[in-house]
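Q: Convert this sequence to structure tokens.
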Amino acid sequence: MEFLVILGLFVVVGLFLVSIYNKFVLLRNRVEEGFSTMDVFMMKRYDLIPNLVETVKGYAKHESETLERVIQARNMAVNASSPEDKMKAEGEFSGVLSRLFALSEAYPDLKANQQFLDLQNQLKLIEDDIAQSRKFYNGTTREYNTAIETFPNNVVAGLFKFTRKPLFEVEDASQRQNVKVQF
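A:
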């Protein structure tokens, strides 16, 4: 009889551990899915930028420094390998991108250019998609991080090396400021 009680206890504890482990795997996969989705939308934006820069170049030939910074920031973001590097590069890219649109304020003909307006509208749609995917990523990351830090889950997380994932946050305080751009 004692043997059956001990065996039953081991089975219950085993099922409990398996359940927690499977929950962590599910949450980790959601975090990875969220980052991957966000990465796809950011890549669409990165692909759109060279066309936007070329359109602006025709109107703002002497603004080459700003345009070069946009392309350099884009290339850094595209080539970032880890999620942390990608998040940092994305923050820098967003900052120089806002300068590109501020630059267009000085060129009324550019603001009326149909190709520029089309590219700008495409970029706005992509930015909305990126914002939604960041919300999803941060939500799933918060859920995952909370799960691995609460007791008794933290014991299982430690046993199987589940670690915290970074949230997508704005690191540069100046990027939190609204950029006023009127077209």
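The chain has a mean pLDDT of 86.
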